[in-house]
Amino acid sequence: MCAARLDIEEASWGPSRALTLLHPVSLALAPGACLGVVGANGAGKSTLLRLIYRYLKPRTGRILLDGEDLWRMSARQAARKVAAVLQEQPTDFSLSVREIVALGRRPHLSGLAAPSGRDQEIVSRALSDMQLHGLAARRFGTLSGGERQRVMVARALAQEPQLLVLDEPTNHLDIRHQLEILELVRNLSVTIVTSLHDLNMAASLCDQVLILSSGRALAYGPPAEVITPHHVQAAFGVVCHREQLHPSGRPHLTFSLSN
Ligand SMILES: Nc1ncnc2c1ncn2[C@@H]1O[C@H](COP(=O)(O)OP(=O)(O)OP(=O)(O)O)[C@@H](O)[C@H]1O
User: Fold this and answer.
1) What is the DSSP letter of 137?
2) pLDDT > 90: what percent of the chain?
3) Domains of the chain with CATH codes
4) Cβ proximity of 240 and 65 under 8 Å
5) Residue with the nearest Cα to atom 13 of ligand 1?
6) What is the interface pTM, i.e. ipTM, of the complex?
7) Ligand 1 atom with minimal separation from the 168 CA
8) Per residue in 129-144, pLDDT tens?
9) Where is the ABC transporter domain (predicted)?
10) Which parts of the chain are beta strand (E)?
């Protein structure tokens, strides 16, 4: 897998001319960097992610991967470069875990060609990266929420993307699997855009953070500059305290409704 540079240039979106849900957003993300998109419910995180994985076409502006406009590529070309792990999961519950993960190879297969030995190897690696080998033959519909989430990450890994988009990747996961997924994601050599609700997690995982508030970019930059009590108050309407953990000295945020 290799990593792409992501440039978002004045990208906005709304379902009609009269309604803008995402006001123009611009940012540049270096290859291999991890961007965390945070904000209150309804702030526009999923909408921005949908533009980045080419589900929605920007009403204004562009999304560029290594300088190439996502909407000037074919859907298939884009699918070879961008993979997404979404909160909505597939409804083909009767497929096995291995079959679902193998769907990630589809953009790389030509025509009706059967998967090659290399494709099978990539699928096996994705299954073992997500510790799913023991579940490979199980029907997707029989898995727990956390197991399903790991299958969706494995499918995205099998796609060998240059940019991986994750919408709340730790949903449904217990603490151990949350930490494992985050560590795995962090060690991938791809560019990552992830929405997160946990600001402490965003601060420790991400190289850059974008705070959205009511469909507008409130702040963008390294976590220490962006996740500040002032911005948190403005975006979430809560009081935020930055404390230092002992003995690591790492910053940790706590929140309250009033001082
Ligand atoms: N097609 C649409 N038509 C009308 N409104 C929409 C449409 N899509 C999204 N919205 C609204 O736009 C706002 C932003 O939605 P979005 O899903 O991007 O928020 P979010 O930050 O991901 O929220 P959450 O944290 O709750 O998942 C919400 O108020 C949502 O109801």
Assistant:
1) T
2) 70
3) 6-256 (3.40.50.300)
4) no
5) 42
6) 0.96
7) 27
8) 888 989 999 999 999 8
9) 6-239
10) 6-13, 22-29, 34-38, 60-65, 68-69, 82-85, 163-167, 191-195, 208-213, 216-221, 239-244, 251-256
Q: Count how many Cα atoms sit within 13 Å of the Cα of residue 206 in the half-sphere of its side chain.
A: 30
pLDDT of residue 1: 66
Answer whether residue 106 shows pLDDT above 80.
yes
From 13, 47, 214, the mutation candidate for ligand 1 (largest count of ligand atoms within 8 A of CB) is 47
H/E run at residue 46: helix 45-52
**What is the separation of C-alpha 221 from the centre of its chain, rounded to a whole number of angstroms?**
17
Two tokens, residue 97: 């875990």
pLDDT at position 21? 97
Q: Report residue 219 CA to chain centroid gap.
A: 19
Q: How far is Cα 182 from Cα 122, in angstroms, rounded to an integer? A: 20
- The residues that bridge with 234 in the sheet, in sequence order, are none
Q: Is residue 213 within 6 Å of ligand 1 at its C-beta?
A: no
Tokens 């001082």 map to which residue?
Answer: 259
28-50 pLDDT per residue, tens: 999 999 999 999 999 999 999 99
| Beta carbon of 214 within 6 Å of any ligand 1 atom | no
Instruction: Give distance in angstroms: CA of 46 to centre of ligand 1.
Output: 7
Residue type, 93: F
* Phi, psi values for residue 36, rounded to 5°: -100, 130
CA of 47 to the centre of ligand 1 (A): 6
Q: How many residues does the chain have?
A: 259
